C-alpha cells in the first residue's frame, strides 16, 4: 500500500504541530455574534445547508448496506453475516442493517440516497491517512487544508460560514486563510440564585486583561448566551457515560451523543444563522473484534439521531434547504478476522438525506468476488459526491475546491 | 511586562513544575520552591499491583467478566494516579503527567491497565533523568507497542506506525527524517512482541528483520537501543525535546532562539530533564508576568484539591464518579488521550462546555473541604492567586457561603489560567 499522504499531515491538521489557520485555533463561537449574524444577514431563502456526519473508525459498509442474499458475503463472514431475513430490504439484493429502521422509513419515502462503493484510487488502510484523504479531498498529494476549509477560503474567509459542533475542530474545516468556528457541545445546566449570578459575573470583560484570561472570561459569557438561546436543545454531558462496548472500536477518535450535536445544528438552522456547512461526528466504528453488537448499537444511535433530525428539518423552510452527508474513512475487509470482527478495508456506502435529495441507489455495488487483495474495489470516487454538494448545495464551482478531479453524480439532488 | 515578585515566582514554579501550591507554600519563597520541587521524590505511597488481562476467550460470560475487570482496573489505576498527583510535592509526578501526554498512549485501544501501569511507572522512574533512557524504555514499552501496532510489525510485513510516531512525535519532530527513514526504522523495530500476560515486550528472533537498515544516514543492523541512540544523536532532537517541555510547562509561545540554545546546553550529553527544568526556571521569560499558560483540566482539578486540602482517598465512590464525569466534560481523561498526538492546549480548554463541567467540579470539591473562606481575599490566599481583578472581586461579593466563594473563585479566569 503506498501512502502518498502521510500521517504527519493529518497530525499537522489536528493541531499537534499547528499550521495554517489552525495555528491560531478555531474561532470560538461567540453566540452573540452568531445570533446577530442571524439578525443582520439571516440564512437566505433557498440557500443550501450542508451537514456532514463523519463516522470515525471505519464503518463496516458490508454490514450497513448488506448484500445478505449473496453467498459470497455469507461465506466470507460465517459468524458475522446478517441473514437475508434479518436485514431491511432495499431491493437489488441489498438490505439495511436492522439497526437502521428509521432510515428504512426514509428510503421508503424516497428520502434516502445510498451511494454504493465509495472510495478513492490506491486506498490507504490507515485511519489517519484515509481520514485525512477524505477530509482534504486529496488522495494523491498531501495538502494542509480541508475541503470545506478551502470552500470557506473561496467564500470570503468568514469563519461563521462553517461550524463544527464537536469539541475539536476536524481538519476538513481548516482552510489556508480561515478555519471554521467551533461550538463545543456540553451540559448547560447552570446554577441559579446568588451563585448563578456570581458565576455569570465572571464573564464580564476586565479592561487590559491578559489574553488567555480574557478568553476564559469570554467563554463564560458565551456559555450563558448558549444556554439562553439553545435552552434544552443541548443535552447534559453528564448523561453521556462511556460505554464499555462502544470503546472496542473507539481508537480512531470521533465524538458521541450525535443526537445532541444534531439537535444543536437544527436549532441553529431554524434560527436562520447564516452558516452553510456544519460538521458533526460519531466515533467507535473501528470494529476489529466482536463487531456485530458494537456496530449495530452504533448504527442504531446513528439512525435515531438522523431520523429525528430529518423529521425536524422537514418542519421549517430553512430545514428543507439542508442536505445531510454521512461517510466514514473506509469500509472493512470482506472476510471476517479471527476475533469476530473485521480489519481495515476500502470502499463503503455514503448516505445522503434531506428534502433536496433524490432517494435511491447511486453507484454500483462492488463485487464480492472480484477483489483487490481481499478488499472491495471502489466504484464511485468520493470527490464526485463532494463536487455535487459543492455545486448543488453550496453553490460553489467545485473546481475551486477540488483541483485534480472532475466528476459528479447527476440526479443525486433534486 | 513586569517580572514576577518572589512570591508569584514561587507560585509559578509550583504551578508549572508541580500541581500547584498548597496553602503556606508561597511563604517559603521561590528558591525553596524550586529546591523542593526538584528533589528526588521518595517512593512514599504503596505501589499499585494489577493483574495482567485475562486470556482472550470465545465464552460470552468470561468475556463480560474480563471487560468488567478491565474497567475496574482502569478506574483503580486512574484513582491511584490522581491520588498521587494530589499528594506529591515534587516535579516527579508532574513529569509523569507530562510524559503521558508526550508518549500519548490510550487505554481505549491498549485495553490493559496492567500495561498502562507499567508505562506509567516507567515515566515516574525515568522521567526526571536521562531522556535517552526513557526513550529506550518506551520504544519497547508494551503499552506503546500495543497502541501503535508494534505487534503487527514483522520481518517481511513491517508496520510503520511506531517507527513514524517515535521520530515524529516523541524524539525528533517533523521534517527531520525522510519516508525512507520511517520504513527503515520500522524494519529495525520488527519482532518486538507483547504478550498479554507479560510485563516486558520480547524480541522474537524469527519476526525480526536482522538485515542492515539505513536510518538517518547510519547503516547498521539496529537494535531498538541503537536505533534510539541514532535518532537522539541528531542535533534537532535536543531542541525538539526541550521545546515540548517548554510548550507544556511554560508557554504556548516557543522559546526564543537564544533560550533554546541555553536549554539545549543544559540538556547536554546526559539528556538531563531535571537540568532542563532548572534552566527553564532561570530563563528571563520564565520570570515574566506575561508567560501565561492555560491549565489543563487535570492540572486545574488536582491543583484545586491541593489548595483545598482534599485528599483523593477521602472521596467516596460517588464523588470519584462525578469527578470522572467532570474531567470528561472538560475534555481530559488521564489514560485516554484523544490520539497519539496528545491533548490540545491553550484555548482548546476554554470552551463553553468545559465551563459548566468546571463549575460542577468546583462545587463538588468546595463541599468537601474544611477551608471556609469568608470573602474574596480569603479565597485568593487559599487558592494562591496573585491578585483578583475588580471583575472577579465583584463576582465574589455576590456570594456569601464559603463553598460558593470557593466555587466561583476556582472558576475565575485568574485561577483557570496560570499566570
Automatic annotation (TrEMBL), chain A:
Residues 1-23 form the signal peptide. Keywords: Signal. Residues 234-254 are annotated as: Disordered. PROSITE patterns: TAT. InterPro entries: DUF1501, TAT_signal. This is Uncharacterized protein (DUF1501 family).
TrEMBL record, chain B:
Residues 50-69 are annotated as: Disordered. InterPro entries: DUF1800. This is Uncharacterized protein (DUF1800 family). It comes from Umezawaea tangerina.
